[in-house]
Amino acid sequence: MKHLLFVNGLEAPLSRLFGCECGRCLDPARKAHTSVSLISLNEAGETVHHVLFDVGLGVADSLFANPYLANGRARLDWLCLTHWHPDHTAGMNHLLVSWYAANRYAGREWVRPSLWCRSGTAVWLERMHNFELDLTKMFVSGEDEPPGTVLPPVPLTLDGLTVTPVTVSHFNGDKDGQNPAGKRHSCAAFVVQTAVSKAVLLWDLDSSNEWLVNPQTAREKTAVALLSHADYLFIDTAFWQAKDRLTSHPAFTNVQRYAASLHPRQTFLMHLSGHPDGPGNGAWGWTNGRWQTEAQTVWRAKNLPGSVRVPAIGDCVSL
Q1: How far apart are CA 191 and CA 126, in angstroms?
Q2: What is the pLDDT of residues 22-48, one digit of tens each?
Q3: Where residue 54 sits, what CATH number does that domain have?
Q4: What is the enclosing helix (H) or strand (E) of 3?
Q5: Is the distance from CB of 43 to CB of 1 less than 8 angstroms?
Q6: Looking at residue 25, what is its pLDDT?
């Protein structure tokens, strides 16, 4: 069996600002929120399984354009959510309702896709996407484990493929949906492993995840070992320069430290924006092409592990 990992989108929540005339906002290229698809093929090249990681705006359009999901090959077996924020869930209605309707109109048997999420995320989904949840079969991790914890694998049914969630801290995403004043760990990264390859999907996370660089406990060291030496590291990169305060996403400054600790073979910058650094600072107005040029210059100068680049929608790696 062959496993392919496709990029569906790599944008931060505000991919464009209405009324902004920076280079990024004037770039006509199609944009979509951060997401990838894991598509499995049998020996005959037929699509036999599809795991979708996050489904923000524009993601469904990427799936429609994927050649392995077109011409009668469309399928959706699992939807795995890093967390509940709209830029990772806003496409649920479009995708799930259209998938149900397409099967009904074609007279095909429709099987509810499975949905995996953290228990804290499930609370928010029940509030924001209650209708769509009826179109899924939910698998909720019944825990509130802290950052740097390896969680039980997603219960897939494919031999030779493992998807393992790892708790990360993302303070805006860790708001307790049942107690507004409380905190509940609701976010996860994913480690996708086959017999020959490993990909790490490390978004969204805030700048406080120091355990990635300096694990202190046996639990954190186990998580770092699982995340280390990946063939492909897909990493959250919202800012160019780190701030002197906690930020909701890491900067490229943080990403350099994570890569130095985790030693990936290839690093892909995801969740990109051209605005959080502020007008005239850092990556203000940068297109994804500019992000890549600037990042590669730093990577080479500091001799960081492997290579770094910014992928494009539709890019694919083999696992």
Answers
A1: 26
A2: 999 999 999 999 999 999 999 999 999
A3: 3.60.15.10
A4: strand 2-9
A5: yes
A6: 95
Q: Is residue 82 part of a domain?
A: yes
CB 295 within 8 A of CB 310: yes
Q: Phi, psi (5° rounding) for residue 69?
A: -120, 10
What is the structure's pLDDT at 181? 80
DSSP code, position 272: B
* Alpha carbon distance 79, 51 (integer Å): 6
> How far is residue 311's CA from residue 243's CA, in Å, rounded to a whole number?
25
φ and ψ of 201, to 5 deg: -105, 95
Helix or strand run (H / E) with residue 77: none
Domain of 184 in residue numbering reads as 2-12+31-318
- What Å distances lie between residue 289 and 6, 30, 49, 273, 292, CA to CA? 19, 14, 32, 12, 5
In this structure, is residue 63 part of a structural domain?
Answer: yes
